[in-house]
Each structure stands twice: as structure tokens, then as C-alpha cells.
Amino acid sequence: MAGGGEVKLLGLWASPYVMRVQIALSIKSVSHQVLEQNLEEKSQLLIQSNPVYKRVPVLIHGDNISICESPVIVQYIDEVWSSSGPAILPSDPYDRAIARFWAAYLNDKWAASLRAIAAADNEEAKEAAVEKAAEGLALLEGEFTRSSCGRHNGKGFFGGDCIGYLDIMLGCFLGWVRLIEKLDLVVLVDESTTPGLAGWAERFCSDPAVRDFMPETGKLAEYAKKFFPKYKNPKMLL
Amino acid sequence: MANDGEVKLFGTWASPFAFRVELALKLKGVQYEYIQEDLTDKSSDLLKYNPVHKKVPVLVHRGRPIAESQVILEYIDETWKTDYPLLPQDPYERAMARFWARFIDEKFLSTSWQAACSSSEAEREKLIEEALGYLKVLEEQQHKRLLGGNDTIGFLEICSSFVAYWIIVIQEAAGVDLLTESKFPNLWKWAVEFQGCPAIKQKLPLPEKDRLVAFFSAMIEKIKRYK
After folding, report:
1. What is the pLDDT along chain B (227 residues), one digit of tens a residue?
2. Interface A:B, Cβ pairs < 8 A
């Protein structure tokens, strides 16, 4: 099965969830075709391969296999192409559990708070959302310190020397984090509040497996205007 | 019996999530100590072991805590490998099990619980519609045997115990109609089989229905009052 069958990714350049899959495919050197999707006019292929959610990312492998939901897809990639490139999930069951725990936290709780900042149309709502997002980042800063302490003196990644599962689950949001910081004039990840994550973010974004997929801020800002009306406001400086 | 280092499970008798973990431990033959939590008066240990969510279940193995039931199930499967695999071997089958377990928790469970606890008539109706939609998806999948029979209580079936039993309890406690035999015959049939499944009955009997209904009635009432 490994490597057998053509690989297609139904994607969207602006989606952090799609980015997770692209990073995973890149780490494993899996040649694949990316089919950019238009979520306002969903393709037949998207609807057929993801009838439950009708959203990206979807990994299509060979003739019969469609995998949906980015955490499921990333683990699938890790397992199918296990002999190619470094492992994405850690090998120790406890470390795997910790990575999955934080991935669940990011997906179930934290991503919504980030989105809430962008969607906030008044100062009060924005501040409440920022506080929530900052709380989450403080927890992840703690986890980064705990996991990297004594291993890399605060360098490296959650996964160790290489990018791993939790790096991918969090790092995929950095494009949007940087955009929101710029447009909403807030600080989320920086040297003073999250020193560990600040260094990690730079290393993550410049990693060869990530570089090509991190969206350019200007392009992302244009895209954001479609979904978050307040960004259309010309008073926002870019 | 596998007893590979001290294992503690923090849970409550009524929790569908704690049930999942306990069932997995029983199926694997792992010895453990069960610490019954009072969620109105959480122990300092629970708060120490799960500071992020402060919830049950938490599994503590060799002094190290793991929270979130699906995460715990995978940990159990990867740690005690010799008996009774919970997840299939094939990567595609594993992906399907994970996909549907996520769907059950993120979509069906969360929506149906919100519907049960909603104090607004309009909001509840909307949530019920949504939950019924998710059940329809599961019903169609069950037609294709998504959820295994008596002999195949794996990761997905364990997570689906919410659909097989807890939703039936919660809908009665809340006075809403979600999973009914007339609307969802395949799921209903599977649910009845699950409840009567000898493997489960022998290893870990489901909590008694009347007691659970009373528990959830009180809990839902309390939540509604504080809204």
C-alpha cells in the first residue's frame, strides 16, 4: 500500500488545516497533486470524497481511498509512508498521547479563540477573544519549555530535532496569527510573552517542509477581507 | 493479567467518557485503581493531573497523567499491545475509526448535549434538527456496517457507546426525541445488541439506566437554571 496509488490533495492555500497535510506530505516526500478548491462553489469531487463535511483538506489515495479531517490525514500519512523520512508522531506512547492531547486542545478550543479575534466587531469582544487565545498560548509555551528543556536548551521543536505532530498542529496557524497581530494590533506570540514559542515560530516557518506553504501576509489579508468584514476597513494599516 | 506499572483511573460512574476508558482497560486485562470523583468537589489530584480541562477521565500510568478519552484509548492500545487490539492494523481502517470517533464526539455528542441542556425552545429545536442530521449520517453508515457486532468491540465501538446507550438515557432525562427505533432502525438494532453484548456485560456492565436518568435529569436541570 505504501506509495502505491496516486495521491491527490483537495486543498486551499489559505487554510491552516490544509497546510498541515502539505507539511506532512513534504516531510515524507510524497509526490502528489494539489487541486485547489473553491469553497463558495464546491466541486463534485469534494462533495463526493467528503460527503460528511464537504470541506478541505481531503487526501485521495489511489482509486478508492479518501481521508478527511487534518489530524486523521496526518496520522494516515505518518503510518502509510512510515519508512520515508522522519516520523511525524513521536515513538513513545506517552509522548504520542501528549502530542494528541495538545492537538485536540488546539482543534477543540484554541482555534476558535483565534477565529473569534478576527470575527470580533467591537473592542470588548476582541479583548475577550485575545485573552482566551493568550491563555492557550501560555499553556503551549509551558508545554514547549517542558518538552524542550534539557534537550535543546529551549531550541528545536515540540517533536525534538525535527518538526513533529504538535509542531504541525500549532504551526499551521502562524500565518493567520501574524496577520491578526498586524490587523488587530494585538500581540500573541513574541519574545516577551512567549519567548520559547517566539523562537520556535521562526524555526518552524523557515523549515524546508513548511516554507513553501506559509501564506504571504498581503495575500492572506486580501483573503481575510472576504470572511471578516472588519478587515475591509481602510483604516487598518498593513 | 497485565500489570505493567501502577495504573490509576480518575472517573465518575455516570460519565460516558470514563466508561470508555474503563472498558478498554478491562478488555485489555489491565489492572487499575479506580478513583471515583465527585465533580462538584474535585480532588486536588484530579486538578493536578488535568489542570487544562479539570475533567474526568484521567489515566495516570507510572505517575504520568493522560487526559481526553480518545487520546487515552490510543495510549492504552499502544502501551498494552499483547491482548485485544483496539484499533485495526490497516492505516485506512485506522483512519476510518478515528474519523468516525471524531464525528461522534465533535458533532453528534456535542450537539445533542447542547440540545438537552438548552433552555431556549427555538435554540433546542434547531439543535435537535442538527443532531438528527448527524444520526441520519450514522444510520446510513451503519447500513454499511460501520459499527461492528458483538465480537468486534474496538476503538470506534467503545467511543460509540455514547450512541448505543448514553444518548438514550440523556434524551429521556431531557425529554427530547433523538435516537428512536422508528427513525433509525439500523442504529437502534446495533444499540440494543451493544447493550446486551456479553463481552461488555462480563467485563464492565453499563451503569443502571434509572440511576443514570436521574443523574442526568438533575445535571441538566442545574445547567438550565444557571443559564
Report:
1. 444 579 999 999 999 999 999 999 999 999 999 999 999 999 999 999 999 999 999 999 999 999 999 999 999 999 999 889 999 999 999 999 999 999 999 999 999 999 999 999 999 999 999 999 999 999 999 888 888 765 679 999 999 999 999 999 999 999 999 999 999 999 999 999 999 998 899 999 999 999 999 999 999 999 999 87
2. 60
Q: In 3-state terms, what secondary structure has residue B108? A: helix
Domain edges within chain A:
7-80, 93-232
The model carries a pTM of 0.95
Cβ–Cβ below 8 Å for A76 and B52: no
Which chain B residues touch A80 with a CB distance below 8 Å? 91
- The secondary structure of A102-120, three-state, reads HHHHHHHHHHHHHHHHHHC
Out of B68, B90, B103, name the one closest to residue A104 (CB).
B68
Using an 8 Å Cβ cutoff, are B155 and B97 in contact? yes
Option in A76, A80, A97 nearest B75 (CB): A97
Name the fold adopted by A93-232.
Answer: Glutathione S-transferase Yfyf (Class Pi); Chain A, domain 2 (1.20.1050)
Q: Does domain A7-80 have CATH number 3.40.50.300?
A: no
Put simply, the answer to whether A93 touches B75 (Cβ < 8 Å) is yes
Measured between CA atoms, the residue of chain A closest to residue B69 is A101
Whether A195 and A149 have beta carbons less than 8 Å apart is answered as: no
Q: Grid coordinates in use for A223?
A: 483573503
Complex ipTM > 0.85: yes
Of A93, A94, A101, the CB nearest to B68: A101
